[in-house]
Amino acid sequence: MEETEFKQTLHLVMGGKVTDPRSMEFQDPESVHVVGVFSDYDNAVEAWRGNAQRTVDDAEMKYVIVPLHKLLTPDAI
Fold this sequence. Notes:
- By secondary structure, the chain is α+β, with helices and mostly antiparallel strands.
- It has two helices and three strands, in the order E-E-H-E-H.
- It is globular and about 45 Å long.
- It has helices at residues 41-54, 68-72; strands at 11-17, 33-38, 61-67.
């Protein structure tokens, strides 16, 4: 019998004002809003969507999902 190992996937949701809506350069990195760290992609998307929709009228606001597990273990899938 093959044992399946659970791989934890962490996702950071954060956002703030960017210098250009087409870029990822934040105007003031110290004021970036950290929404939180989520243990699965679906919950991260839900948090991202809520914040992105709340600020949809501000073209300079951008929220993103950062796959932390890929930064912590680059060889992992």
